Amino acid sequence: MVLLKGFEIEMYTGTPQGEIVGLSDKIVAALDGFVREPDSRNVEYITQPSASYEKLLCALLHPRRTLRNYLNRLGNYTLIPGSTLSLGGSDRFMRSDPANPYHDYIEQTYGTKVVTASVHINVGISDPEILMRACRVIRLEAPLFLALSASSPFLDGKATGYHSTRWGLFPQTPKHVPLFASHADHIQWVENQLAAGTMQNVRHLWASVRPNGDRRPYDLNRLELRICDLVTDPIALLAITALLEARLLQIIENPSIDPLTQSTFSPEELVTLTAENETAAATTSLDAQLTHWQDGRSITARDWIGEIYQDVWAIAKQQGFSCFLSPLHKILREGNEAQQWLQLHRVGFDSQCVITQAITTIQEREIELEDKLCSSLLT
């Protein structure tokens, strides 16, 4: 069994010098498949669900090539990596749709803390009770996926002290989200939040992981991992996704994997522990010292990821996608994007130099992957 997977990718647009420029109103009007965010400086595209990693690779690349071609027609514009306003602009909101009342609420309530770029990974699970159990486990392990994906060490031209400034500052909403014991528990909780106004609508659940579907909270069919920073290299993103899928397959096959029965902590303690782990992962990513949800032992994010990798490798191999999982070793060995950028920063490169170099690197990487792997599907 393999699972359906899809991505929501938010990216900034701007100049080759790293200045982020709001173009989403023009992009959405001109191109199919792109969606505006409340701030015009980033734009989103969504891939169709697929079980195939090969097809997902091309689904990630194709819209970016289309977008790059359009940006070239507009002027000397490009796509900018990272998950924050790395070089400036966090002092102001630039509305993409001034008439949208929900965007009014977002701007007035959160300001530019939400003007971030990220990737949301959706994985299909149709049974709502299995989905809820999967959400419980992955919520507690979400800091590991943040550690692998961190790409926002800068804000307004300065190193912030975070590897993921995005998640360090992001206003998780509502402030307290429990571990849902069942689908019915989730439905009741969402209805209560909507009645109390702590959620403006069913989409206004901004936690690291949430159950998703066509008629939330009633009809649910996928787990949405929302914690990841933007991962610009498609091979790295697919490796992170393969780890998530293999872990989910393990959870589906083994009903005993459940924090409500397998942990020494109470559900409330687990929520607190996970919040602390998320903060640690946002700060030092793969080097973060985390608390394991099962028994409370202290473990680095890198070592915990390595343990899960060993546990699920056979599952990925059996299902035919272990070759997409194996590039995880490179991230663990060489560091995520934030760690690589900070290494350059420590040896004297300023933030603009780091970002402009990354802009060139991702464009070259896209061309390389298209030519090698997707040319027949993209013509």
Structure description:
This protein is α+β, with helices and mostly antiparallel strands. The protein has 14 helices and 11 strands. Strands 1, 2, 3, 4, 5, 8 and 9 form a 7-stranded antiparallel sheet that branches. Strand 6 and strand 7 form a beta hairpin. It starts with a strand and ends with a helix. The mean pLDDT is 95.
Keyword list:
alpha+beta, 379 residues, two-stranded antiparallel sheet, seven-stranded antiparallel beta sheet, globular
Describe how the helices and strands are arranged.
Elements: E1 5-14, H1 24-30, E2 34-36, E3 42-46, H2 53-74, E4 78-80, H3 101-110, E5 119-124, H4 128-149, E6 154-155, E7 158-159, H5 165-169, H6 183-196, E8 209-212, E9 222-225, H7 234-253, H8 259-262, H9 267-284, E10 289-291, E11 298-300, H10 301-319, H11 322-325, H12 328-334, H13 337-346, H14 351-378
Antiparallel strand pairs: 1-3, 1-4, 1-5, 2-3, 5-9, 6-7, 8-9, 10-11
Helix pairs in contact: 2-14, 4-7, 4-9, 7-10
Summarize this entry quickly.
The protein is α+β, with helices and mostly antiparallel strands.
User: Average pLDDT value?
Assistant: 95
Strand percentage, roughly? 5-15%
Number of E strands: 11
Computed over alpha carbons, the radius of gyration is: 20 Å
Pattern of helices and strands: EHEEHEHEHEEHHEEHHHEEHHHHH
Largest sheet: 7 strands, antiparallel
The low-confidence parts are none
Structural class by sheet pairing and helices: alpha+beta
**Total helix count?**
14
Proportion of residues in helical segments:
40-55%
- The termini sit apart by 31 Å
Rough shape?
Answer: globular
